[in-house]
Design goal:
By secondary structure, the chain is of the alpha/beta class. The protein has 14 helices and ten strands. About 8% of the residues have low confidence.
Length: 451
């Protein structure tokens, strides 16, 4: 892969054992007193859904029909609900162990607040499942905007932080050295593999309404109605690779996952390289990340600081802003993989997940935690990703016990989910002063957000 992110990934992967050992269940290094967890803000992707495209549209890309799903396109499945419930239990256990949530009984009123994107059924229901699992039997509600469109999760559409399409185009082309069709060997290999999964015999497409020839298309940037879009094999392959991942996570019989040709986490990992590259270019490029992620990033920072939310780089109220009570110390925002990529890029957070080839897979959570040292009067932010390895996600969706996880010298746990500490840019350790996080956010607003 020719993206600049590749070098950072190599460094991060070499440090994973140290980061996992340093983070698991520990507070920042004490200086003159014990650290306590004061509050946490989490941003989560919704649970397992069906493909957003109709079966008829998907069939255009393959020599065989795609499997049917029990729900309408883009909706959360029952398997998705089961996997989310497992994730909620993991999150509850984690923050109980860290002293933020009570070990017995219901949390104090207003301690936990859950807000989900109102735009889609899958996010609204995911929020409700998480709320129920965070405080079982306590009647905890999940909230969402009254309108069907929530600008908090779709800021670019709200034109609050206007997308600079010219700057975005320049940034994307710079990251690929000016050639969108020469993205390196990982891209070429993934594209060939995708073609072999969709249509092992190219002649099988002759006479059908299929457009199986992904290898022959070209990637290009187009501007429509003021929006910059990347079209071509990379975009199509990114969508289809995630659809194959969803078949596996849903728990479909293995002979139905990519018609039996994409039925292992290893094979899916190779295919999902297309999704990772597409996300890196279209969601993590600075202008794109800020245009769509500014409101979420600002809200998360304001909640970390315990202040009322304001719009990105302005002092105006965020439209349809959630009415988060001042008593909330556990705030969960439920959105999409796009939101995770956007906010991660704005804050300079980058990750690859052991056992999970999709860095923003269903149920995945970005957590920002505020730790306080009462004796020193200091507060620091720690960042982490909470996620389910692909085998664990499938096992949870099927309602079975956790599958065996990848094992190495630093991590021998068998768990339904895992956590990974993230390095915050500009800080020498895994913990970082809130002022540094704020400075990072403000610099991104000034550089990349038009007013």
């Amino acid at each position: 892969m020719r993206l600049r992110r590749g070098a950072r990934r190599a460094v991060l992967l070499s440090l994973l054992p140290l980061l996992i050992m340093a983070f698991a269940g520990s507070a920042p290094a004490a200086q003159g007193g014990a650290w306590t967890l004061e509050r946490v803000v989490l941003l989560q992707r919704h649970g397992i859904r069906s493909p957003t495209d109709s079966p008829a549209k998907l069939d255009r890309y393959s020599a065989q029909p795609w499997p049917s799903w029990p729900v309408a396109p883009g909706e959360l499945t029952d398997a998705g609900r089961r996997a989310l419930a497992v994730m909620a239990a993991y999150v509850r256990s984690r923050y109980t162990d860290l002293g933020l949530l009570p070990r017995a009984g219901c949390p104090a009123p207003g301690l936990i607040y859950v807000w989900a994107d109102s735009t889609d059924e899958r996010t609204r229901v995911s929020g409700a499942v998480m709320a129920a699992g965070l405080a079982p039997g306590c009647g905890l509600n999940s909230y969402h905007a009254s309108s069907q469109h929530d600008p908090l999760f779709h800021a670019a559409d709200a034109h609050i932080c206007v997308a600079n399409t010219r700057g975005m185009r320049s940034e994307i082309l710079a990251r690929v050295h000016g050639d969108l069709n020469d993205l390196g060997p990982e891209y070429a290999q993934a594209l060939r593999l995708m073609q072999s999964v969709l249509a092992p015999d190219p002649h099988a497409c002759i006479g059908r309404a299929a457009t199986c020839g992904l290898m022959h298309g070209r990637n290009q940037l187009t501007t429509r109605e003021g929006k910059l879009t990347l079209e071509g094999p990379l975009a199509t392959g990114a969508t289809l690779s995630q659809d194959l991942e969803l078949e596996y996570a849903e728990g479909l019989p293995l002979d139905q996952v990519g018609w039996g040709r994409a039925a292992t986490p290893e094979r899916l990992g190779q295919l999902l390289a297309l999704h990772e590259q597409f996300s890196e270019l279209t969601r993590r490029t600075p202008d794109a990340a800020v245009a769509n992620g500014a409101l979420l990033a600002r809200l998360m920072l304001q909640e970390l600081e315990g202040q009322p939310p304001v719009a990105a780089a302005t002092k105006a109220p965020i439209p349809s802003s959630p009415a988060i009570p001042s008593s909330a110390r556990f705030v969960l925002l439920v959105g999409h993989d796009t939101n995770l990529a956007n906010v991660g890029a704005i804050l300079g957070l980058d990750w690859r997940l052991p056992g999970q080839p999709d860095s923003t897979a269903p149920d995945t959570i970005m957590a920002l935690e505020v730790w306080r040292n009462p004796s020193a009067g200091t507060r620091q932010v720690r960042a982490a990703v909470l996620y389910q390895p692909l085998a664990q996600l499938r096992a949870a969706a099927r309602g079975g016990p956790p599958a065996a996880v990848l094992r190495d010298a630093s991590d021998t746990r068998t768990s339904a989910a895992r956590d990974l500490a993230l390095a915050i840019p500009g800080c020498t350790s895994e913990a970082c002063p809130i002022s540094s996080v704020r400075a990072r956010l403000e610099s991104q607003m000034l550089q990349h957000c038009a007013h």
